Amino acid sequence: MTPVIGPDTNMKNSTVLDEIRSAEESIYLQQYYIRHWDNEENPYLKEIKDAARRGVEVKVLLDSTWYHMGENGNDEMVEELNGFADDEEVDLEARILSDYQGLTKSHNKGMIVDEVSVMVSTINWNANSMLRNREKAVIIENDQIGDYYSDIFLQDWRDLIEPIADAGGEQEVTVGEEVILSGENSWDDHEIVEYRWDINGNGDTDRKGEEITLVFEEEGTQK
Known about the structure:
- A seven-stranded mixed β-sheet has the order 1-7-6-5-2-3-4, with helices on both faces.
- The radius of gyration is 22 Å and the shape is elongated.
- The longest helix is centred in the middle third of the chain and has 15 residues, at 74-88.
- The mean pLDDT is 89.
- It starts with a strand and ends in an 8-residue tail after the last strand.
- The chain is α+β, with helices and mostly antiparallel strands.
- Strand 2, helix 2 (43-53) and strand 3 (57-62) form a beta-alpha-beta unit.
- It has helices at residues 13-21, 43-53, 74-88, 127-131, 143-157; strands spanning 2-6, 26-31, 57-62, 92-96, 109-113, 117-121, 135-141, 178-182, 196-197, 207-208, 211-215.
- Helix 1 (13-21) runs parallel beside helix 2 (43-53).
- It has two domains: 2-157, 2-Layer Sandwich (Endonuclease, Chain A); 162-223, Immunoglobulins (Immunoglobulin-like).
- It contains five helices and eleven strands, in the order E-H-E-H-E-H-E-E-E-H-E-H-E-E-E-E.
């Protein structure tokens, strides 16, 4: 068991940073929110990305409360992290907390490494909490405790809500003229990663993209 007393030891290599660097297989991270620092990259976040680069499976789950969404919010952080994963082709995925069995908020600041080492913490991942606040955490290395917290995390991680595809309402168009179809009103509680369109209804993907342009050459009804 390793105590972490903030801000005194939050940034020492022997505490949180070493915990992330020690990961060999997986990191499960559940946070109230993650924010960038003003003048440099959040060092905890940098270590998470570096872990993914060396082959560690990383899952990041952030709170979905309305005041953590929008500009500089958790939804933007999720988009950034998933974009990083796509660009660098690493095993990292970030999600917003799903409405799971009535769970609507995650105030947790926890991390599980290799399903063995668990950090239970009050430390928010922002500059104030790391550098200027009186915070505390404990890092526990124990197989049974690791299994227990891993199971809880993976319960919260599960996506139980099906996405809603919305291609817009009915349109009356003129043969030979362009018509725009938009999926902007489609919804998922985590993230929409791709828009696929089946134009002729045969079950195959004909086009991709949130918005597409079509020209119909024959009269009739298209569904």
